Each structure stands twice: as structure tokens, then as C-alpha cells.
Amino acid sequence: MPMYKVRPFQGGPDSAVLAQHLPACMYRVRSVHHDSQGGGSHAAATVSSSPQEEVDPSLQALESRQEEILKRLYELKAAVDGLSKMIQTPDADFDATNIIQADEHAPLTASAADLDNLLGKDYGALKDIVINANPSLPPLSLLVLHSLLCERYKILSAIHTHSSVKYVPEHLLKCFGEQARKQSRHEYQLAFTLIWKDVLKPQMKFSVQTMCPIEGEGNIARFLFSLLGQKHNAVTATLIDSWVDTAIFQLKEGSNKERAAVLRSMNTALGKTSWLVGSELTVADVVTWCALRQTESTSGVPANVQKWLKSCENLAPFQSALKLLK
């Protein structure tokens, strides 16, 4: 005998709940076509017959800006695709001399550098480039670049010795020559201070408050050479950077096998142009020459490399650096 009796909800015609009484939806929302006076059919007709509303001008401006950005992206993609067809292998940087010679749209140019744009405006204060270097591994390329900068600007040069270094050879203390200061400080365009210090790698700063030090001889050389105002297209700049890295990591720090491979690549490149990259001296020539001289790898070099070495050493800045090696 059941404890409770419950009348079923479904059944025949006498059922308590009929199908038409069940809800058709969970929530009911008033139609947006009905006006406040209840004229639903009239409002719907008005809405359907009204003309399309005008588009917001700000939305149109946003759409046009998006189209312009997409167009520029397509152009950049096409440029990158073109470069990828020219440079397809990791070793293609040594063979890109043909690209430099054929490139007539972006020739190598040199112009006077604007120190305010390159180093920032100090409101009359003399811009001071400070380099820390280890006297046991003197950065020869930086001394060559110092001489090149002295030909372009009025430079106040100074050499100091840090307390972490016990002894510095006399020729390194006078590597900038005799510095007789005959003018007041504000009459110079640039200050170049070299501090012999016990550091693993050369370090450079020109704004102590606002920048981290630039480390590594190659990186500092790139920065100093940029002050000479040379402008390069993208392919030429990439090739220059490649030679600088090759000189530091393979000529200076690599094995004999790596040096031999670099000399062969140099001989091929110098068979097409008088300098490593194009027809003008670049930072690649400076760093590579210094690496060859410091590692004493100049004997038995190929003919084109030997000719290039003589061309470098005919320039006064290289002659000054060469005296430090004797």
C-alpha cells in the first residue's frame, strides 16, 4: 500500500496540465518595434521603411586607417620576401658583395654627423665618452677610431688609471699622444676619456645617469664609427655587422682553422672591392685589421688581403695604432 498518492501531470483530456499551458520561452522581452503608445504595427512599418542611418565619421576614419596599415604591411612583406630571395643561406653574407655593387637605389653616402641627434642634447655641457679597458688586452680598434674622430671633431682626450690596475705600460699611457690642453673645455665638441681598468671586456658610457654601459670592442667600435656620419643601406649595414662579428669571434678568439676560413672569405671579397664592404673604409675594415695585427695573423695571407693591409696602413690612424704593437 503506497504512502502517498500523486495525481499524474500527463494523461488524457482530464489531465490537470494541458500542452498549451506550458511556457514557450524562459524569458519574455518586449518588442523593440513597439512605441510607448502601443502602436506596434505602425512602428514596425516605420522602422522598416526608414532609410539606413549614416555611418559614424569616427568609424569611417578607423576603417580607412586600418586599410592603410594593412597596405603598408603588405608592402613590408613584399620587401622581406625580396630580401629572402637574395640571401638564402647562413654564409651568404660573404657573397653579398655583388648585391652592394648592383644596388643603385641606396648608395653608400657619408655626411657630417649631428652630435646632438646622436648623443642627445646636454644644453651646453660637453659630451664625454668614457671607456674602461684592460691594459692586458688593449682595444686597438678603439684607438684607431679615436684618431679618425680627431680628424672630424675637436676632441678633448684624457687617459686615467684605475686603482684596480697596478701597472700600465708607458706606451699605453701615451696612446693618445701628448695631450696639451690649450683651449677651455667648452670649446671642444667631444670628450674622449680612456680609463685603464681591470675589466673582462671594454665598457663604454657617454651618459652615466641615463644609460647602461655598452660592452664589447665590436659594439663600441660600431657606435664610435657611427659618429663619423656614414649612412648605409640595409644590406650593406648587415654585411658590415657580419664582418665585425667575424673579426671578433673568429679572427681574434677562434681557432687556426676558423682564421684560415675567414682569410679565404676576405680574399674573395677584396677581389671585388678595394675595402671589405664597398668602395669606402668602414668599421669592418678597422676591427678586422686590428684583429689580424693583434693575433699576428698577417704573415702568409692571400694577395688581396696583403694589398688591403697596405691600404689600411697607409692611413695615419692605422700608423699610430701600429706603433703601439712594436
A few lines on this structure:
The chain has 326 residues and is α/β, with parallel strands linked by helices. Helix content is 44%, strand content 9%.
Average pLDDT metric: 77
**What proportion strand?**
5-15%
Report the helical percentage: 40-55%
Number of helices: 12
Low-pLDDT runs? 39-51, 87-113
Main attributes of the structure:
326 residues; alpha/beta; five-stranded mixed beta sheet; 12 helices; 44% helix; elongated
What can you tell me about this protein's structure?
- It contains twelve helices and seven strands.
- Helix 5 runs parallel beside helix 7 and helix 9 crosses helix 11.
- Residues 39-51 and 87-113 have low confidence and may be disordered.
- The protein has 326 residues and is of the alpha/beta class.
- Helices cover 44% and strands 9% of the residues.
- Strands 3-4-2-5-6 form a five-stranded mixed beta sheet, covered by helices on one side. Strands 1-7 form a two-stranded antiparallel ribbon.
List the helices and strands and how they pair.
Layout: H1 40-49, H2 57-86, H3 97-102, E1 109-110, H4 115-119, E2 128-133, H5 140-152, E3 155-161, H6 170-173, E4 190-196, E5 203-205, E6 214-215, H7 217-226, E7 230-231, H8 234-252, H9 256-270, H10 283-294, H11 303-313, H12 316-324
Parallel strand pairs: 2-4, 3-4
Antiparallel strand pairs: 1-7, 2-5, 5-6
